[in-house]
Amino acid sequence: MNSLLPGAWRNVSNIKLTKAGDFGKCKRRTIHLARQYATESASSSSSTPPEPSPKKSSAHGQRSNREKKRRHIMFLQGVPISALPSDIARLLKSYDIQGYLRIQRDYVRFWPTDSVLVTFGSLGERDKAIKALEYAKMLGINLQPAAASTMEEAPDSSQPSKQPRLRGREGKSELLDHGALSGDGPAAGLPDSESGKNVVLSGLPGKLYVASLRKELLEGFDLREDVNAVAKIPDLDKSLYSRFVIRTSSVAEAHRLVRAVKMTPYLEGAWGNRYKIKARVIY
């Protein structure tokens, strides 16, 4: 019976009268519930539809944001190591492929592989590109396109962490500053905004310090205004040689650095031809 009463009146039957003075309290409580019931009835009879709850609205907004951040990726294998993103762009243009957002080389510990990742904003454009490149060749090498989808994650502010960390471009920059990047994945795990601006130098002495490299080789080059513009890559193989990531201020400066030091001996007067520098731009 109690379940059939309106919401404002359901509490009336739960009031227990134990003393004579409780009748006054019951009367005041009844008047209050009557007013509440009148308010509920007026709001329910109104033609204005009820607003969605904040919880549902928030969930809908999260779904919409996830859909906007979805990216469709085409893996293109068999690409020559010497091919630049501009070469891949000309290849896509020759096959009338449009709608791609970025082109990134895949790396393993800062060494380029024969795989390139092309990101599309539309699933249809991605599938069209895969079909068009099915029998494509580059420098006589058969290309192998494949499909994969990924979701770019955004930080979740609803679940605070005890040790918050940065993500995306700022997070990658922070990891590079601390020497924590492994050099794996698209663009070697470096920020997208620095594509073409970073240079990897290898073949240098194993115990070479950052300060020595700056002084003896990098003077005169325009690097980022940051104390961590030169970072030593952690050595996992206990090699006699070392590698460094150099973060320049522009794409042109990165290419100028490569042209100036590539295949030149490091401190020839002290080491002779023992340490020949290898340099490449990271895309």
CATH-derived topology of the largest domain: Alpha-Beta Plaits
Q: Classify the secondary structure makeup into a structural class.
A: alpha+beta
* CATH fourth-tier homologous superfamily of the largest domain: RRM (RNA recognition motif) domain
Which segments are poorly predicted (pLDDT under 50) over 5 or more consecutive residues? 1-27, 29-34, 40-48, 151-169
Biggest sheet record = 5 strands, antiparallel
CATH class of the largest domain: Alpha Beta
What's the helix-strand series? Answer: HHEHEEHEEEHEEHEEHHE
Distance between the termini: 73 Å
Supply the number of structural domains. 3
The neighbouring-strand order within the major sheet is 6-1-3-2-7
The counted number of beta strands is: 11
Average pLDDT, all residues: 75
Biased composition (Low complexity): 38-48
Protein name: RRM domain-containing protein
Region (Disordered): 37-68, 148-178
Biased composition (Basic and acidic residues): 167-177
